[in-house]
Structures are given as C-alpha cells and as structure tokens.
Amino acid sequence: MSARLSFVHRYEPATEPERPPLLLLHGTGGDEHDLVPLGRMIAPGAALLSPRGKVLEGGMQRFFHRLAEGVFDEDDVRRRAHELADFVEEARETYGLAAPVAVGFSNGANIAVALLLLRPGTLAGAALLRAMVPLQRPPAADLTGTPVLILSGEADPIVPAANAARLASMLTGVGANVRHEPLPSGHGLAQADFEMVKTWVEAASRRN
Ligand code: MLT
C-alpha cells in the first residue's frame, strides 16, 4: 500500500498505531526496500515509511550529491533536505501519521542530520548509523529535547572518529538529547547496532 507521492517509497501501515512511525533512509546504492526488515525488527508494529533517494551516482541511489567521498555538495544537501521534509509532510497527511523517528544508515543518516538542522519539527527523533557532519556551517536550529542516537564505528574508513564526535557535539549544542556510542566496528552494521537501536527506539517510543 503506497500512494503516488513526490518520492518513490514503500509504506507499511502500523499494526500498533500508538508506536511512532519510522522514516527509513537507506545508504548509497540502496533503495526503499533495504531497511524495511530492520524497521520491522527494531519497531514491530510501527508504521514504516521508506523513500528512495532521488540522486543517482554511477547508477547508485543517494539522497544528495557529493563531490568526493565525504565531500558534500552542500547546496544540494540543503535543497534535498527540504524536498525530503516536504515529502514527509505529504506522507503524514496521506497516511495519517505522527512525526516519524528517522533511522538512517550512512548517506541516509547524513540527510537525516540535515533534516534535523534545516527543518526542525519534521522528525520526532533520529537514530543515525555511521553518520557524519553534512553541513560545515550548520543553521541555528533549536532541537531542544529531540532524542538522537549516533552509532559510529571506531574503525570506520569513511567517517573519521573525530567527525562523528563533532556531529555529536554539534547536535548537543543545539539542544538535542544526544547519545553517542562508538562501536568496535567499521562502516558496516553489526549485531550491536541492531540491539542498541532497538532498545533506543523502544525508549524513544515511551517518551512520545
Ligand atoms: C555520504 O556520501 O553521504 C557518505 O560518504 C556516506 C556514503 O558513503 O554514502
């Protein structure tokens, strides 16, 4: 059941409507199906909204353009974040959803950070898996009390540990309720990620 909206997406309605919906944001080369099994596992019964990134890089789908690995086209980051926020509003109206909690991996986590900073109120919270700072000069946002989980990999060749730490302090600095856990892993996800994100989403659901 997916309506025709401004992003190709997959939507799974809630069987437990009191749970906050999840906005699932895939990594480079992924699509709208990628994180659905993860979403079902970490938030059974929650509505799942999973858009496909519109940018193509060598045939791989992403949520914004980059100039090189880890070097982002920041004008595009801004434009795409607003486009994605508009989609979330559209989907909330179409499907009757509360503000979602984002669960983003890699490029999907980076656009989730941009959503938090550029369109506060769009997300009820965000679990950022292997995220980095997407905007060198972030806007002055007020994210007071917004729950954010950052799971970074200590041996991640794409996201330097210092960048993940900078992201955590940037989001803390604008009031988000940040928990940052560096894990003994690389850029890929491991069992510890799944367990931590599930526990965090459950706690975030109780707060809502
Ligand atoms: C990005 O481009 O968003 C990051 O480098 C992560 C990725 O490889 O997608």
Summarize the structure.
The protein has 208 residues and is an alpha/beta fold. It is 34% helix and 23% strand. The mean pLDDT is 96.
Give an overview of the whole structure:
- This protein is an alpha/beta fold and 208 residues long.
- It has helices spanning 36-42, 74-95, 107-118, 161-173, 191-207, and strands spanning 9-12, 22-25, 48-51, 55-57, 60-62, 66-68, 71-72, 101-105, 125-129, 147-153, 177-183.
- The strands form three sheets. It has a seven-stranded mixed β-sheet with strand order 1-3-2-8-9-10-11, with helices on both faces.
- Strand 8 (101-105), helix 3 (107-118) and strand 9 (125-129) form a beta-alpha-beta unit.
- The model has no long low-confidence stretch (mean pLDDT 96).
- Bound molecules: D-malate.
- Residues 27-28, 66, 69-70, 106-107, 110, 158 line the site of D-malate (MLT).
- D-malate binds at residues 27-28, 66, 69-70, 106-107, 110, 158.
Supply the key terms.
208 residues; alpha/beta; Rossmann fold; 7-stranded mixed β-sheet; 11 strands; 34% helix; binds D-malate
